[in-house]
Write a structure and sequence with these properties.
Elements (H helix, E strand, L loop, with lengths): L15 H9 L1 H7 L12 H17 L11 H24 L13 H18 L22 E2 L3 E3 L4 E3 L3 E5 L2 E7 L10 H18 L5 E5 L5 E5 L2 H24 L10 H5 L8 H6 L9 E10 L6 E8 L7 E5 L12 E9 L5 E12 L3 H13 L1
Helix pairs in contact: 1-2, 1-7, 3-4, 3-5, 4-5, 6-7
């Protein structure tokens, strides 16, 4: 298999999410910054649900009630939620056209998360927190941020080129706290990655206010708070790591094609949209890994009209299926494909023996570049 390699854009601003992804797998973030592979990375319901929660929290925190007809606090929050859920579903559906993703009520943990968020936000609407003045000495007009609390305000370290958007920066008595909201159903004590995120946010808040936050916490809508201790030493360490990651990525970006390392694992690859085109995943994947079904192969025959083609494929990966003949149906392909072309497919249903593979709404297909055309172009350049 002639695997396509990423040629990513250099990184200007570094964020927590980039750093976390880079630590999981530098090759994955390289693919994510190459526009040729952007269609592989599409939103999924879990991420869309998280975006709904963050949007509701932001709108309530900023008293953004435009277009809301309800007047009772709980009904206001419910109406905001429904508006934001509809927006996220539209984005999800657009990203997956012509497939039809599940509607919001069918997203994992939707009903529970909606109930918790409405319960948590209703008192905040009633108290109108954004109208309360910040205590003396803790106003910050830098970049128009205004007084605390800040909700979903992007903060930028212009010197080190670090940015982030904490869910909430607030006063607790005379102390500044950074809060990040998580929507996971099984959130407990903050993971190492979440601690790292909070400390990076603490640096950005300190830069804007001149005061190191006294604490930071992960919270779950509807209750549950998991605080961490914030120290200057820990904050400085995280900042140094973020700068080093940015420099390392851009150093490899210069090397382009061969500069990025894949660090495959069941955890890292399970969340990666680029395993269809990743040689590191293909080499490392084991049969018992819990990831979405993924295969690569060479087309032997085609039936139907593009884009909904039925293909017979000789499987090349995963290796325990190598050489097997598989029929692929119900999949939309990004371009015409004929016998001899290499393809990849992820997120499908299949018979136990993989003799028949059927596309689902979340199936992602990929057609590898036509190597014969590439070879002809190379030969032409050599002759010239």
């Amino acid at each position: 298999m002639d695997w396509p390699r990423p040629n990513p854009r250099p990184l200007d601003l570094v964020s927590y999410s980039f750093c976390a992804a880079h630590r999981r797998c530098p090759l994955s973030v390289a693919y994510s910054r190459d526009s040729r592979f952007s269609r592989l990375n599409r939103p999924r319901p879990v991420a869309s649900l998280g975006n709904v929660v963050h949007s509701v929290v932001e709108r309530v925190g900023r008293n953004q009630y435009g277009g809301i007809e309800s007047t009772e606090p709980r009904e206001i929050v419910k109406e905001i939620w429904d508006h934001e859920a509809a927006k996220q579903y539209k984005l999800l559906a657009t990203s997956w056209t012509p497939a039809e993703p599940p509607s919001p009520p069918d997203w994992p943990q939707y009903a529970l998360t909606r109930t918790r968020t409405i319960r948590e936000m209703t008192p905040k609407v009633r108290l109108d927190l954004m109208a309360r003045p910040a205590p003396d000495g803790h106003r910050c007009e830098d970049q128009g941020l205004g007084p605390l609390p800040w909700r979903e305000r992007e903060l930028i370290d212009e010197v080190r080129r670090i940015h982030g958007t904490p869910d909430l920066v607030e006063m607790r008595g005379n102390e500044i706290w950074v809060v990040d909201i998580k929507t996971g159903a099984h959130q407990g004590e903050p993971s190492d990655e979440q601690v790292w995120q909070l400390l990076l946010y603490a640096h950005l808040v300190q830069l804007k206010t001149g005061i190191l936050p006294s604490g930071a916490a992960i919270v779950v809508p509807g209750g549950g708070e998991y605080p961490i201790t914030v120290s200057q030493v820990d904050v400085d360490t995280v900042v140094s790591e973020a700068v080093a990651i940015k420099e390392d990525f851009n150093r490899q970006e210069v090397a382009a094609v061969n500069g990025f390392r894949g660090t495959p694992s069941e955890t890292a690859c399970g969340y990666c949209a680029f395993r269809l085109v990743c040689p590191s995943y293909a080499e490392a994947c084991e049969e018992d890994w819990k990831v979405l079904n993924t295969l690569t192969g060479v087309v032997t025959s085609v039936v139907g009209e593009w884009p909904s083609l039925n293909l017979e494929v000789e499987v090349q990966g995963p290796r325990w299926r190598q050489g097997q003949s598989t029929r692929i149906v119900g999949v939309s392909w990004p371009e015409e494909v004929g016998p001899g072309r290499s393809i990849a497919l992820s997120g499908f249903k299949s018979r136990h023996d993989w003799s028949l593979v059927r596309g689902e709404w979340e199936s992602v297909s990929y057609v590898f570049p036509d190597q014969s055309v590439d070879d002809q172009q190379k030969e032409g350049r050599l002759r010239n």
